[in-house]
Amino acid sequence: MMRSVRPPAAPRAVPAWLAGALLFAIGTLALPAAALGLDDTEVAVFQALLAHGLDPEQRMLVLDASTTGDPAAIAEHLDIARTLVDELGAPGETLDAWIRRNAVTADIDHPLDLPVSYHVLDAEERAEVFDVPEPQVGWSQFFARYEGAPGLLRLSRIGLDDSRRHALVYVEHQCGVECGAGRLVHLSRGDDSTWQVNGAVLVWMVE
User: Under DSSP, is residue 189 helix (H, G, I), strand (E, B) or coil?
Assistant: First the structure.
C-alpha cells in the first residue's frame, strides 16, 4: 500500500480473500452501472483519506475515474467483513450502508482538494495503457506516462453510520503484475467536521 494512503493501524491479512486476479483485469472489470457522481461527504472523506500520511516527496496520484463497487466480494463474506469492521471500531451499520452504496459505482468527477497533483484515469486512457498482450508492458507504460505516481488507486463509495460521523471505504492500490492490495479503512468526523483516518484492515494483497 502506498504511503500516501496508509492509515496508522497495522492491517492484518485475510488469506481467504486473496484476489490477485484483480490486478490483471483493470481494463475488463465488470462493474455495476455508474451513478451520477459523488456527494459532498464522499468528496470530503476521499480528500482526508488521500491526504493522510502523504510522503513529503510524493509528486502525484493517479485515481481510477470510477469507484470500485465490491471487487473483493465483501458482501458475500459478511461474517468475515463484520469481524474486520469490529476490529476497526466502526459502527456495524457502516458496513450495511457500504454494501448498499456500492451496488452501483460513481464517477469521480468532482474536483478534489489535495496537497499534491492528481490525475483521474478514464476508461479510454486505461485502455491505451493496459490493452496490451503482456500485463508488465502495460505497467511499464503506466509508470512512464505518469512519472512520480506510485501506482493506480481505486476507491469505493463510502458507507456512513446513522450519525454520519463514521465512514467506511475500500481502497485498492495496484502497482504491478504482482504488486497490489485492497484495504477497508475507517474514518471518523470530529466536532470541527474534519474527517480523520482511524485505521485499516487488509482485505487482500499480492506481492
Answer: strand
